[in-house]
Amino acid sequence: MALRTILTDESPKLRKISREQVSFDERLHQLLDDMKETLDHANGAGLAAVQVGILRRVAIVDVEDVLIELVNPVVLSIDGEQEVTEGCLSVVGKWGKTIRPQRVKVKAFDRYGNEFELEGEDLLALALVHEIDHLDGKLYTDIVVGELWEDNE
Ligand code: CO
Q1: Per-residue pLDDT tens over the stretch 5-57
Q2: Taken in order 109, 67, 133, 75, is the CA torsion positive or negative?
Q3: Taking Cα atoms as reference points, which of 147, 63, 146, 69 lies closest to residue 113?
Q4: pTM above 0.90, yes or no
Q5: How many angstroms separate the Cα of 121 from the Cα of each of 36, 45, 69?
Q6: pLDDT in tens, 73-124
Q7: Catalytic residue among 131, 147, 150, 153
Q8: Cα of 122 to ligand 1 centre, how many Å?
C-alpha cells in the first residue's frame, strides 16, 4: 500500500467527469487499498479516486469505522433533507453548511464486481452523496449555503 497525494480544489482535474471502472483487477484493488491508507492518514470520512488523480468511478466512505468501497456507484433514490456541516479533503481546512438528503439508496459494485445496494442515513447519506458528486466533478462548495469558514483546530 502507498499513500497517494490528495489534489486540492485548485486542480482542474477535480472538475472532470470520471469514467466507468471496467475491470475488477489487481490494479483496482491496489487503488482501493491506497485510497484507504490515504483516507486514514488524512482522517477523513470519504475519498473519491479523482481526488488522487484517477478519473475512474471509484470511491470509499468510512463512517463510524465501517469502510464501504463503491465502484460505479449510482444513486437510486433520495429522501428527506438534513442541514449539515460539510468539509472535503480537497478543500483544505474549510467547512460550510449544505442541505443534503437525510436518506439515500445507492447501487454499486464491490472490488470483485459483485453488485450490491446500500441505504445510508444521516452522516452516511452525506458521505455517499458527497463522494458520488466527486465522480461528476462536483464539490460541496458548489451548493454551500452562506460562506465557508476556516478550521480553527
Ligand atoms: Co470531498
Answers
A1: 999 999 999 999 999 999 999 999 999 999 999 999 999 999 999 999 999 99
A2: positive
A3: 69
A4: yes
A5: 22, 14, 17
A6: 999 999 999 999 999 999 999 999 999 999 999 999 999 999 999 999 999 9
A7: 131
A8: 16
Tell me which residues have their CB within 5 A of the ion that is ligand 1. 88
C-alpha cell at 70: 463503491
> Cα dist. 20→58, 135, 151 in Å?
8, 10, 34
Q: How far is the CA of 112 from the centre of ligand 1 (A)?
A: 24
Decide if 104 contacts 132 (C-beta within 8 A): no
What domains can you pick out in the chain, each with its CATH number?
12-150 (3.90.45.10)
Rounded distance from Cα 51 to ligand 1 centre (Å) = 8
Any idea how long the chain is? 153
Q: How far is the CA of 44 from the centre of ligand 1 (A)?
A: 9
- Cα distance between residue 4 and residue 31, in whole Å: 9
Q: Is 131 one of the annotated active-site residues of the chain?
A: yes
